[in-house]
Amino acid sequence: MTKSKPGRSGFSGYILYKLSLTVLIVLSVAVTANGSDSPSSYVRRPQPPKKLNKPVVLLISCDGFRFGYQFKTETPNIDLLISRGTEAKTGLIPVFPTMTFPNHYSIATGLYPASHGIIMNKFTDPVSGELFNRNLNPKWWLGEPLWVTAVNQGLMAATYFWPGADVHKGSWNCPKGFCKAPYNVSVPLEERVDTILNYFDLPEREIPDFMALYFDEPDIQGHEYGPDDPRVTEAVSKVDKMIGRIIMGLEKRKVFSDVHVILLGDHGMVTNCDKKVIYIDDLADWIKIPADWIQDYSPVLAMNPRWGKDVKNPGQKNAELVRKMNEALSSGKVANGEFLQVYLKENLPQRLHYSDSSRIPPIIGMVGEGLMVKQNRTYVQECSGTHGYDNMFFSMRSIFVGYGPRFRRGIKVPSFENVQVYNAVAEILGLRPAPNNGSSLFTRSLLLPFGETSQVE
Ligand SMILES: *[C@@H]1O[C@H](CO)[C@@H](O)[C@H](O)[C@H]1NC(C)=O
Ligand SMILES: *[C@@H]1O[C@H](CO)[C@@H](O)[C@H](O)[C@H]1NC(C)=O
Ligand SMILES: *[C@@H]1O[C@H](CO)[C@@H](O)[C@H](O)[C@H]1NC(C)=O
Ligand SMILES: [Zn+2]
To answer: Would the pTM of this model clear 0.85, i.e. be above it?
Structure first.
């Protein structure tokens, strides 16, 4: 683990800055309250004795934990975090595309995929022709993830299977013992939890300030059987038991009231068993599209046409292709055509933030919720769960619960995008955030001001 503290002097300056900001906010509130609201609510209550004298954040991701799964079965441990913490009322909004790698890296960096570079789980860079398939070469992984921000500024971090955490960047070199990788599906969730808990047995200065823990459930069951299968319900129950194991372990070490636990997921899950499929070959009367122009069919149609060297203006050809495809799809003559809309990437709806990267292929098709796109009818019918669709769909949403001294108790906040998480963690840890797509104002609506803590027992 990197122990150099290059950012320490800047860090205390940052604390002072934060303190003066807090004073300013308290003063202005007291003034605007105009005597009607007693400022005594800002007088600090006596704090319970602390075991830990530094902020610690444990960030837990449950892959594919769709918002609403918590109502499938009894989840007493997740409920406990919710009742004593802050919850996103109707779930955490993933970034588009709602896939695992882009979203875990958006949570870690606060950046949209166009800016952090992991634009899909697997893709070919249209410029260089190189394939990204979860490679660890840092050139693919742009931006600054939380573990790098932490160690660059003299704090310590630990990661367990978090996608992208085994990439060496800045002062982070994925240290043995504090960076569990590569991902291994066979490692029991209990073992992952116990490794994290064991860090709390270290002397306080050696306890990682930031920890990121990854569970691959309920995603695995969700893909295999679809979100409505009883095996997904079992996986939700299992994840809840793991949260219980964490709570018990922290309580046993008398630090449960001092640790910030953030429980979230990367995306939701939807069934594609309705067998609604759009076949690219059905568009042949309008335009013939070779299979090798298509990098991905669904849930995101990603196309990079190869026009050949003699074509002078490929941009114009792409625009013509998009126009013809949409003409076919809206003709009423293509089965399920109304469920696919094709765009030049620069014309995608702004809210997707999915155009400003040379890695994004030039043509993107937005596929209807739960639908599939295939080249032709010669494929084996599959029925399973999937994700990756438009992040507007509620089925793609996941959960967010923040618990610990800086989170309000028993509060629900409106849903927000996961790019906001980076700033919140940086704020709790007193870190200077790297440039990102979250808003610093948002942090104030999620967290109690610095120096003021809720009483969490
Ligand atoms: C994955 O984990 C299992 C269970 O701990 C272990 O037996 C196996 O050797 C691991 N595989 C690799 C490639 O490390
Ligand atoms: C159907 O599409 C696949 C590619 O998805 C291709 O390999 C296969 O040859 C196609 N079959 C026909 C009959 O066109
Ligand atoms: C996201 O943040 C990066 C880094 O500050 C910036 O370059 C980019 O323009 C931002 N994207 C959006 C959509 O605001
Ligand atoms: Zn996932």
So the answer is: yes
